[in-house]
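Q: What residues go here?
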């Protein structure tokens, strides 16, 4: 399990945001942008690496969100919100971060960078996905 720091998550979110806005992975541009911030080299490199791992899997994560937010398809979600969801789902599924910890970290990012409604939306969607996955595991 990889332990992510708050700054790594922030850097990953910034990189994912840029990838999403540009609809392209421009790692050099993201690296320059992250270098301008206050974060350590470890946080910047870790965050960018994390974003590069998440971006190719974004459609998988978006499909997990779809049934939990039927009125908010991916293209209608704020860019920050959908990338916070992708980051949290990656943490839970690929990095084996405990669900509660990943959800709490996602809600904190939503409070810091999202809209007034972002924390509740992120929490509700991730909680539904997490409870559904726990139920699936107990019925297997």
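A:
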């Amino acid at each position: 399990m990889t332990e992510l720091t708050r700054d790594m998550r922030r850097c990953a979110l910034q990189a994912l945001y840029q990838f999403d806005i540009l609809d392209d992975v421009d790692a050099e541009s993201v690296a320059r942008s992250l270098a301008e911030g206050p974060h350590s080299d470890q946080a910047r490199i870790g965050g960018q690496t994390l974003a590069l791992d998440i971006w190719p899997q974004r459609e998988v994560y978006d499909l997990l969100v779809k049934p939990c937010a039927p009125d908010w398809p991916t293209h209608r979600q704020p860019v920050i919100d959908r990338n916070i969801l992708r980051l949290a789902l990656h943490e839970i599924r690929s990095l084996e971060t405990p669900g509660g910890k990943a959800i709490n970290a996602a809600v904190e990012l939503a409070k810091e960078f999202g809209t007034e409604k972002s924390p509740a939306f992120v929490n509700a969607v991730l909680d539904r996905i997490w409870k559904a996955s726990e139920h699936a595991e107990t019925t297997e």
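A: Context that may help when evaluating the design: The first helix runs from residue 6 to 22. The helical segments are 6-22, 27-35, 41-54, 58-65, 79-93, 99-113, 118-139.
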